[in-house]
Amino acid sequence: MGLLGLFVFVFPVLGLILNEAVLSNGGTTSSFVRKVEKTIDMPLDSDVFRVPSGYNAPQQVHITQGDLEGKGVIISWVTQEEPGSNTVLYWSKHDKQKSSAEGKYRTYKFYNYTSGYIHHCTIKNLKFNTKYYYEVGIGNTVRQFWFRTPPKVGPDVPYTFGLIGDLGQSYDSNITLTHYEHNPTKGHALLFVGDLSYADNYPFHDNVRWDTWGRFTERSTAYQPWIWTAGNHELDFVPEIGETVPFKPYTHRYPVPYKASGSTAPFWYSIKRASAYIIVLSSYSAYGKYTPQFKWLEAEFPKVNRSETPWLIVLMHSPWYNSYNYHYMEGETMRVMYEPWFVKYKVDMVFAGHVHAYERSERISNVAYNIVNGVCTPIHDQSAPVYITIGDGGNLEGLATNMTEPQPKYSAYREASFGHAILDIKNRTHAYYSWHRNQDGYAVEADSLWFFNRVWNPMDDSTTASS
Ligand SMILES: *[C@@H]1O[C@H](CO)[C@@H](O)[C@H](O)[C@H]1NC(C)=O
Ligand SMILES: *[C@@H]1O[C@H](CO)[C@@H](O)[C@H](O)[C@H]1NC(C)=O
Ligand SMILES: *[C@@H]1O[C@H](CO)[C@@H](O)[C@H](O)[C@H]1NC(C)=O
Ligand SMILES: *[C@@H]1O[C@H](CO)[C@@H](O)[C@H](O)[C@H]1NC(C)=O
Ligand SMILES: *[C@@H]1O[C@H](CO)[C@@H](O)[C@H](O)[C@H]1NC(C)=O
Ligand SMILES: [Fe+2]
């Protein structure tokens, strides 16, 4: 290790002098000064948890993409007193009459909790780029919402994603969601990097907190798809009280279209949306060689056609590059397995959560190490993704403030504040990314970056920071 720091690797094309991580305190640690306050969950009688009025009214309405390319949507809702109706009525303003689709409902028990009737209905073959209204419920308790399908998949289709992780249901969570909603750059769909309700922090994983989370987030999730990633707080594995099926509440409540991408489990899957190809991975499912997730991902990367979807985005919960003293190196074993593919297939950006703070990396990789050669320091790599940790949604566990010092060279920006991000894809060559901390005005960008797509701009440096 000692000698390593003296080595200077010269990147052959760009002629950059690299790998000074051992010797220098690089990067730009944010100078933002914030008062650290306790993060407290909103009480059960909070306005955001209010049950909609009317007998058996549908609640916790949420939608996600329902197929591979964005013509499908899965609509979910809960009725508390009785099953009620499984029907969704939907229409666009050009339609003369409403169409209807039939879903199914299910219930589950968790220790001494019994869920309401959780309905899921998949609607397929919608028109692209169309606003649809939909209704769930019957009689006096019909509730109406709307969503917009994405444009047809294609290389120059602009599209705006929001990004939130580790949200929970504290007062800060509510501020994060409010800032996302009020951001003048409107997200059309939200990429959620795992850890939803934090119900598992309550005694016996009180699943009532899954219900409150569903009601809290409905004001966004009913109107735009949230693309789900499983985090450790979705595991709900509690053998002490007889709960031995991992992800039970999560899978009953938050279905994803995993079969459409040939996946065999809802924890890893992919979707195309506009000009993006989004691969969702599971940090908490087996990913070693020969496992279902490994075999699926191995077959998945070659399917990505960058002439069709120039932007290749990966979501996972546990970050691979994280320089906080929380969850440090927890993502390491998965990085060892998959990072060579991420470099080979030029993944543009990897979003993770888990660490309750914000961090953005340089384009770096660390794939040369083979146990005996000692080459174990990340290097600048123009084929590598930018890694962004955005686990700063605001859950009750509070902020991760303790960082490794000095800031590693590979870490471009890090800050312990709650917030959300926006990825605004302009066309096949340009995407604008911004991170917004909760303390600022809605439009303020605390960190931002132009992404230049390396498949379509091969000679350009691929990012320009403007934070
Ligand atoms: C579940 O069990 C816990 C611990 O005994 C208790 O506090 C809680 O009230 C019970 N909940 C229900 C719904 O019975
Ligand atoms: C949550 O935020 C909304 C504004 O977006 C506000 O109306 C509501 O009162 C807040 N609720 C709590 C409990 O903070
Ligand atoms: C990749 O996508 C482009 C644009 O949609 C299409 O013309 C081409 O045939 C696709 N290539 C493959 C191998 O499918
Ligand atoms: C920060 O983390 C380091 C490494 O785990 C630990 O030694 C140190 O005590 C922590 N500092 C604080 C203020 O918690
Ligand atoms: C792509 O978007 C960028 C940023 O908005 C713009 O400068 C550029 O001209 C666009 N390229 C094309 C081919 O439209
Ligand atoms: Fe987590």
UniProtKB/TrEMBL annotation:
Cite the Purple acid phosphatase N-terminal domain residue spans from the record. Answer: 58-149
Q: Is RNA-binding there in the keyword field? A: no
Quote the Pfam families the UniProt record gives: Metallophos (PF00149), Metallophos_C (PF14008), Pur_ac_phosph_N (PF16656)
**Residue ranges constituting the Purple acid phosphatase C-terminal domain according to the UniProt record:** 384-443
UniProt keywords (A-Z) are: Glycoprotein, Hydrolase, Iron, Metal-binding, Signal, Zinc
Provide the transmembrane region boundaries: none
Record's catalysed reaction(s):
a phosphate monoester + H2O = an alcohol + phosphate
Which top EC class applies here? hydrolase
How far does the signal peptide extend, from start to end residue?
A: 1-15
| Domain called Calcineurin-like phosphoesterase: residue spans | 160-358
Question: Which GO MF terms are attached to this record?
Answer: acid phosphatase activity; metal ion binding
Q: What is its EC number?
A: 3.1.3.2
Which InterPro entries does its entry note?
Answer: Calcineurin-like_PHP, Metallo-depent_PP-like, MPP_PAP, PAPs-like, PAPs_C, PAPs_N, Purple_acid_Pase-like_N
- Family indicated by similarity: Belongs to the metallophosphoesterase superfamily. Purple acid phosphatase family.
Q: What is the name attached to this protein's record? A: Purple acid phosphatase
Taxon lineage: Eukaryota, Viridiplantae, Streptophyta, Embryophyta, Tracheophyta
